[in-house]
Amino acid sequence: MNKNKEGKNNKQNKGLLISAITLIAIIIILAGVAIYFATSNKNNDDKTIAYTDLIEQISYGNVEKVEMTVGSTSIKVKMKDQEEEKKSIVPNTEAFIELVQQKKLEGNDIKLEQKSKNALLQIPATLLSLLPTLIMVALFVMIFKMQGLGEKGQVYEDTERKTKIRFEDVAGLDEEKEELIEIVDFLKRPEKFSKMGAKIPKGVLLYGKPGTGKTLIAKAIAGEADVPFISMSGSEFIEMFAGLGASRVRKLIDKARKLSPCIVFIDEIDAIGARRTSNSGAETENNQTLNQLLVEMDGFSSEETIIVLAATNRPEMLDNALLRPGRFDRQITIPTPDLKGRLDILKIHSKDKRLSDEVNLESIAEDTAGFTGAELANILNEGAIIATIKKHEEIENSDIEEAVKKVTVGLEKHSRVYSEKDKKLTAYHEAGHAVVSKYLPTQTDVKEVSIIPRGVAGGYTMYKSDEDKYYISKTEMKEKLIALLGGRAAEKLVLDDISTGASNDIEVATKIAREMVTKYGMSDNLGPIDFQGKEQNDMFVFGENIGDKIGQEVKLLIDEAYKEAQKLLMDHRDKLDTIAQTLLQKEKINEQEFKKIFE
Ligand code: ADP
Ligand code: MG
Ligand code: ZN
C-alpha cells in the first residue's frame, strides 16, 4: 500500500517538474502576447474610423493601405494624406476583403496586407523554432496526466466541468426533452431502476443538422441531472497518432468510470463510427477506435451509471454495430425548429440583447422557416453588430432584417460599380423571377426585389417564407422550377441573349428536377421508384440505359418549366417592363410597392 503510494508520488513529481517547465514556457508566450496587445491597443478613440466611413473613404480612393489579421475583425487603416494609422472594426471580413479586391480590380491603388493570426510571429524565428519542442513537452504532460495521477486532482478538474445549462435553456424540442427526461432520472436515481430489474440505457444517438442544438441538449441533460459532462469530438480521436485513438477512448471511459454517474458526449461520432468496410490505412485506425468504444460500452457494469450521448448529422453513415441493443439503442432526431420553436429560440437569445420594442420576433420567426437554432442566434447577434455600426440606440427591426439578409444572401455591396448593360440585365432577370412567381398559385409572395449586389449575387428576389409544412406536392415543385427559370427566360425574351447570371438558378432547378424523378418518383413515365440506389449495382436492376431515361425525364421537366416561364412573361410583358424599369430607377422594390404594380 505504502510502496504503491510512493510510486505514485514519484510519478507525480516527474509530472510536476515537466508541468512547471511547460508553465514557464506558457508564461513567456503569454507575456509576449500581452505586450503585443498592450502596445497595439494604445490607440484611443479618435484614432478609430467607423466602418461605414471607411467604406466611403475607400470608394473615394483615400485609403492607402489596409492591414488585417486572420481571424480578427479589428483592422488597421492607413489613409493617403495621414501619417498615423487608424483602427476599425470590420463586421464581415470575407465580404470586406472581397470589396477591397474589387476596388483594386477597378484601379484603386489600395494595398491589402493580411497577417497571420499569431502574435507569436512577431517573436524572433529562433524562439519560433522551439515551438515544436514546447508542443511535444505539453503533449507528454497531457499523456502523463491521462495515465492517472492522483484521483483527487482529476475529480476536481472535472466537477468544474459541470454545466449550468438546463432544459429551460433549450427552446422548442418539447417532445425530445420529454424523452430525455428519462435519462436524467436514470442518472439521478439509478438504484430506483435497478431495483426494479430495469437495465439502464447505455447510449443515446442524437441525429440532426449542425446547429440544431444537439450539444446544447446533451449539456442540458448533464445540467439537469447535476452530473459531470465529459466530451470529445470524433474527429479528435482520429487526428491523433496511429493507435492513439483506441487508447484515448479507453482513457475517456476510465475517466467516466471514476466520475460516474456522468455523461460522456461524443460529437461527430460518424468520424469514428462510419461503416466498417475496407481494411486500408486510416480506416483500420478508425475501426480500432470504434471497436474500443464498443468494447468499453459492452463492459459497463450495472453499478456504473455512465450514459454515452453521441451526435451526428449523417446517420446513414453509421456502422450498424453501433446501433445494437446495449449500445446506442436509443436514437432521437433533433429537427430544425418549427414556427413556435423558432420564436422560442429567438426569445431566449434576445434576452441579453437591447432590442427595441418595435422588433417583432413573431414576424422574424415567420420569415425564417428552415433556419437552425444556431442560425437564429447568429441573426440576433449580427443584428446587434449592425445596430452598433449604425449607431442605433437599440436593435431595430431594420437591423434584424438586414441581418437576416446578411446571413442568407450575404452583405450588400453598394460600392460595386457595374455597367448600364449589366444593370439592365440584372433588372430584367430579377423582374422575371418576380413576375413569373406572382402568377404561380403555389409560390409564396414576393417580399423584396433588388439589383443591389449582395454576397456573390448580382441581385436577388426574396420571397415571403413558407409556413412550415411536411410535404411538397408535384405541382408545387413544378411551379418552383418555373419560378427559378423566370430569370433566364426574361433575359432571353427582352435582350435576346442570355448570361451567366442564371447559373445558380439552373443548378438549383436541375437538382430539384433530378430529385423529382429519382427520389420522389414523380415522373409519369418512370413511376414511383427510388433511382438513387445506395449501392452502385442497384441501378442495373432497371436495365443498362436507365441513366438515359432518367436524363430524358429530367430534361422534360426543365424544358416544360422554361417554356411555361417564357409564356407567362410574354403574357405579362407590361408588368415585366414596369418592374424592371422601377428597379433601374430605385434599385429595390418592397412588398407593398410590388403588390401595387399588380393592382
Ligand atoms: P449542434 O451541436 O446540433 O451542432 P449546438 O448545440 O452546438 O448545435 O447549437 C449551437 C448554438 O445554437 C447553441 O449554443 C445555441 O446558442 C443555439 N441553439 C441551437 N438550438 C437551440 C435551441 N433549441 N434553443 C436555444 N438555442 C439553440
Ligand atoms: Mg455540436
Ligand atoms: Zn436568378
Describe the structure in your own words.
This protein has about 600 residues and is of the alpha/beta class. The protein folds into 4 domains: about 5-120, Signal recognition particle alu RNA binding heterodimer, srp9/1 (2-Layer Sandwich), CATH 3.30.720.210; about 155-335, P-loop containing nucleotide triphosphate hydrolases (Rossmann fold); about 340-410, Helicase, Ruva Protein, domain 3; about 420-599, Up-down Bundle (Methane Monooxygenase Hydroxylase, Chain G, domain 1). It has helices spanning about 1-40, 50-60, 95-105, 125-130, 130-145, 150-160, 175-190, 190-195, 215-225, 235-240, 245-260, 270-275, 280-300, 340-350, 360-365, 375-390, 395-410, 420-440, 475-495, 505-520, 545-570, 575-585, 590-595; strands spanning about 65-70, 75-80, 85-90, 110-115, 205, 230-235, 260-265, 305-310, 330-335, 445-450, 460-465, 590. It binds adenosine-5'-diphosphate, magnesium ion and zinc ion (ZN). Adenosine-5'-diphosphate binds near residues 214 and 373.
Low-confidence residue ranges: 1-11, 40-44, 148-160
What's the CATH H-level homologous superfamily of the largest domain? P-loop containing nucleotide triphosphate hydrolases
User: What is the SS-derived class?
Assistant: alpha/beta
| Helicity, as a percent range | 40-55%
User: Would you identify the CATH architecture of the largest domain?
Assistant: 3-Layer(aba) Sandwich
Within the CATH hierarchy, at the fold level, what is the topology of the largest domain?
Rossmann fold
* Average pLDDT over all residues: 82
What small molecules accompany the polymer chains? adenosine-5'-diphosphate, magnesium ion, zinc ion
User: How do the strands line up in the largest sheet?
Assistant: 6-7-8-5-9
Strand element count? 12
Let me know the largest β-sheet.
Answer: 5 strands, parallel
Give the count of structural domains.
Answer: 4
Percentage of β-strand residues: 5-15%
- CATH domain class of the largest domain: Alpha Beta
Instruction: Supply Rg.
Output: 29 Å
Overall geometric form: globular
Question: Number of helix segments?
Answer: 23
